[in-house]
Design a protein that fits this description.
4-stranded antiparallel beta sheet, Immunoglobulin-like, 6 helices, alpha+beta
């Protein structure tokens, strides 16, 4: 995708420039008219193409912006050039410098996107990066947990939105809390009562979750709750530090997945 992005950005901007020059040189359109016609052509042609082969809102935004800026910049340059020709004076460098600035920004940003997703290839990495002391080769791409497939991320988000809409329509009743309070370093019972929209207990659900400590992932605790009576689920936990904790709970019942986020405050330990 990054290579395709670079090609489509630079190739599309070049196509916009060629069409503009052709209109301005071989027709009666002045620079502003040619720029307006090219901008309308970009919208008419690119919008259907982007919808049919949708790659995400970020990809759409950068393409439409670059194409329109190219047409606008060329309109400024050639309009100034036409005015200079009428006044019989030399060509002014300021409009050209503005457009050149945007061209350089687009080219550099496209290369950065490619490097961020794919990394630097071996030959270029050996030239730009220092040689590893322990031998081997240098890998420059980010190996973290952030997904690099933007289309899949957006598709997953759309699926999450649909699931949240179904969850609201389902309208399950969830009552949650600690039995008798909770203090740091002391075992406590976390209870959850689950019922449908008619307040009938939901039995046989599989409930899992995770208590998360802001700023220290090493203290996070996963859990699975047991059903102690119809619709009531409990788990005994010991959270090591006082203060605020976040909790994410997932409830699975057949093909239904119901989840929510919440916060809780853990009290100071007794002294």
């Amino acid at each position: 995708m990054p290579n395709d992005l670079v090609v489509s950005l630079l190739g599309g901007a070049l196509a916009v420039a060629l069409v503009f020059v052709a209109l301005h040189r071989f027709t009666r359109f002045d620079a502003k008219g040619a720029a307006l016609l090219v901008a309308l052509g970009v919208l008419v042609i690119y919008l259907p193409v982007a919808i049919l082969w949708w790659q995400g809102a970020d990809v759409f935004a950068i393409h439409i912006s670059i194409y329109l800026i190219t047409a606008y910049g060329l309109g400024i340059i050639f309009s100034a050039h036409d005015q200079v020709d009428r006044q019989k004076r030399g060509f002014h460098w300021a409009p050209a410098l503005i457009v050149l600035f945007f061209v350089v920004v687009v080219a550099i940003d496209s290369v950065f996107v490619m490097f961020a997703v794919q990394g630097v290839d071996g030959r270029l990495a050996s030239w730009l990066l220092p040689a590893p002391r322990a031998g081997g080769h240098v890998s420059s791409h980010f190996p973290g947990t952030v997904a690099r497939n933007f289309h899949e991320r957006e598709q997953a988000f759309n699926e999450w939105l649909k699931r949240m809409e179904a969850q609201q329509l389902r309208n399950w009743r969830v009552r949650k809390g600690w039995v008798g309070g909770v203090r740091a370093g002391e075992p406590a019972v976390f209870r959850l009562e689950l019922a449908d929209k008619d307040d009938r207990p939901i039995t046989g659900a599989r409930i899992t979750g995770r208590f998360m400590r802001p700023g220290n992932i090493k203290l996070d605790q996963s859990f699975q709750m047991s059903e102690v009576r119809p619709g009531r689920y409990e788990v005994k936990l010991t959270l090591p530090e006082h203060g605020r904790w976040n909790v994410h709970v997932e409830i699975a019942k057949g093909d239904i997945l119901h989840d929510f986020n919440a916060r809780t405050i853990v009290g100071d330990p007794l002294t």
